[in-house]
Amino acid sequence: MSLWRSGITRLGLALLALPLLAGALQAHGGLSMDKDYCKLRVGPHLMHFTGFQPEGDYSREFCEDIPAIGPTIIVLDFVDDALRDLPVEVRIVKAEGGEADLERATVLHRPPKIYTTGSLALDYTFADAGNYIGLVTVDEGGHELVARFPFAVASSNRLRNLLVLAVLAVGVAGAILWWRRRRASRAPA
């Protein structure tokens, strides 16, 4: 039986394809829900999150990690009409600074405001790559609802994918070696 026809080779090829799917399979913070990765839940309310980077090769829409540093536009569209009558506050903080000292860690802040159009746009230039946290607070008559969503700016998953690929390749090579030795030990002498 040829090595190509063996189940181990086909299994190995399937395992090698897994890192390519890893990014698509990851859920990210509060943004992932109901197969639409661009929805954000704030208590019982929903918002749609969309980001754009008008410069460079990153002009396509995104809703999780921000591909590069630079000018970025983030749009929050209210899915629930009830949000149009409630004050909404938005804050982006550096994750390294933590949420304990919000004022010092904050890179962008929009104070509470009622957005009757059902949409708010944030225009910010990210100067530093790294991890950030978005905080959306809705004041529902004295009761604050907060959505927290972590995201990265200019953070590549390539190194992680290469590491996963290397581990899988070693595992597949080990399985093939084990299979060949087992097969050779069963062969009549």
Q: By CATH's scheme, which homologous superfamily of the largest domain applies?
A: Macroglobulin (MG2) domain
- CATH topology name of the largest domain, in short, is Immunoglobulin-like
Helix content: 25-40%
Query: What's the total number of strands?
Result: 8
Q: Give the SSE order as H and E letters.
A: HEEEEHEEEEH
Beta-strand portion reads 35-45%
CATH first level of the largest domain: Mainly Beta
Radius of gyration: 23 Å
Low-pLDDT windows of residues:
11-34
Q: Structural class per helix/strand content? A: alpha+beta
Mean pLDDT: 78
Number of domains: 2
> What is the terminal-to-terminal distance?
19 Å
- The CATH architecture of the largest domain comes to Sandwich
Tell the overall outline: elongated
Please count the helical segments.
3
Quick overview of this protein structure:
With 189 residues, the protein is an alpha+beta fold.
Please provide a written account of the structure.
Strand 7 (130-140) and strand 8 form a beta hairpin. The protein has 189 residues and is an alpha+beta fold. The protein is elongated. The protein folds into 2 domains: 1-27 and 156-189; 32-155, Immunoglobulin-like. Mean pLDDT is 78; it is low at 11-34. The protein has helices at 7-25, 102-105, 158-186; strands spanning 39-42, 45-52, 70-78, 87-94, 106-114, 119-126, 130-140, 143-153. The protein has 3 helices and 8 strands. The chain has a 4-stranded antiparallel β-sheet with strand order 1-2-3-6, with no helix packed on it. Helix content is 28%, strand content 36%.
